[in-house]
TrEMBL record:
InterPro entries: AAA-ATPase-like_dom (IPR018631), P-loop_NTPase (IPR027417). It holds the Pfam family AAA-ATPase_like. SUPFAM superfamilies: P-loop containing nucleoside triphosphate hydrolases. It comes from the Bacteria. This is AAA-ATPase-like domain-containing protein. Coiled coil: none annotated. Residues 7-203 form the AAA-ATPase-like domain.
Length: 376
């Protein structure tokens, strides 16, 4: 029987490694990121490992070499260094008014100001952020690493409330825009979230971000590929087959049908939903684990407001511009796609359009069972 401890809900890389949790090595991707660029953005659905990715980057830039023992990073990185890190996590809060976002930013800013001796606590958040970066650089002699997890959480919670969303947009646009004006003091920056709000929105002042959400080299930076399953979970596949009274081949097919199928770039490998996959191996039972963790209220609200014909979802056609942004016309397709309920099924190069559909059986069944009733 497998003795793997599956990291369900574990998002901290240091505790994951120290406590012996199962980990599929993504550090070669991380090495490639940090050595080939400086500013990145990644959009992936919820529970796809974005927070663990940010935590892994944090451990790397803290110079915690011991945590990477036995991983690709140990072989690749020869020059370990420690950098000042500003880690902003917007995930763990309810944002129902502009003050709630300001309070969350202030909480992080106060900690950073105390750490790096920045005396500008009476200024606006973006001014304080600017000064913290400068003070951190001056105090440590090292350029600063900025890691932002779930950058879009306030904006998503404000969908359907134009006034509140505009307030959040203005606050975050000014705050994130600091990264461009402090370029000389930045070693690395990465922002993650579920969605990408358009160029006219949060990122209009931050046009130096490399959006790798639809870049082939990083399709399985988050999520699990079929090859990674067979490289790391062969024993567990056989065990699951025995307990489910199935053949090895039938289990592989069912895993693929239920949890594979996420395509973030056309004509590339499919990516398995890591949350559902690891739960299946933990409990040795197939289930709709990802969908049962909850239906995002913002998606239900947008579907209702847009009066979108849900029958179209299985065969939707759209352009890359639509997939990459959320616009103000209540078109729900970008949000449905970026949230993981649709994926790329095909691409017409001549006309530059994507054919979308449900990624797998879990999402299709879950959508019909859990989401459609909300939108009737």
């Amino acid at each position: 029987m497998s003795n793997k401890i599956y990291p369900i809900g574990v998002q901290n890389f240091e505790s994951l490694r120290q406590d012996g949790y199962f980990y599929i090595d993504k550090t070669e991707f991380i090495y490639r990121l940090v050595k080939s660029g400086r500013y990145y953005f990644l959009s992936r659905p919820r529970r796809f490992g974005k927070s663990l990715l940010i935590s892994t980057l944090e451990a790397y830039f803290q110079g915690k070499k011991e945590l990477f023992e036995g991983l690709a990073m140990e072989r690749l990185e020869k020059d370990w260094s420690q950098y000042p890190i500003l880690h902003l996590d917007l995930n763990a809060r309810q944002y129902d008014r502009p003050e709630s976002l300001l309070e969350e930013l202030n909480k992080h800013l106060e900690i950073w100001e105390q750490t790096y001796g920045s005396p500008y606590g009476d200024r606006k958040p973006e001014e304080r952020f600017y000064q913290v970066i400068r003070c951190a650089y001056k105090k440590t002699g090292q350029r600063v690493v900025v890691l932002v997890d779930e950058y879009d959480k306030p904006l998503l919670q404000a969908i359907g409330n134009a006034e509140l969303q505009e307030a959040y947009r203005n606050i975050l646009k000014a705050f994130y825009g600091v990264l461009k004006s402090t370029d000389g003091h930045i070693q690395f920056a990465m922002l993650t979230g579920v969605t990408k709000f358009g160029k006219i929105s949060v990122f209009s002042d931050l046009n130096n971000l490399d959006d790798i959400s639809m870049r082939e080299p990083y399709v399985n930076l988050c999520g699990i590929s079929e090859q990674e399953i067979h490289d790391n979970l062969e024993e567990e596949i056989h065990e699951l087959a025995e307990l489910q009274n199935m053949t090895y081949e039938d289990v592989c097919v069912k895993l693929k049908v239920y949890y594979d199928g996420y395509h973030f770039v056309e004509n590339t490998i499919g990516v398995y939903n890591p949350f559902s996959l690891l739960n299946t191996f933990k409990y040795n039972k197939f289930g709709n684990y990802w969908f049962e963790t909850g239906t995002p209220s913002y998606l239900v609200m947008l579907l209702k407001q847009s009066h979108y014909d849900l029958e179209r979802m299985a065969n939707e056609v759209t352009s890359s511009d639509i997939l990459n942004s959320i616009y103000e016309d209540l078109n729900p397709i970008p949000l449905i796609y970026q949230s993981g309920y649709l994926t790329i099924k095909g691409y017409d190069e001549e006309f530059g359009v994507y054919r979308l559909g449900f990624p797998n059986r879990e999402v299709e069944e879950g959508f019909i069972k859990y989401l459609m009733p909300y939108c009737q």
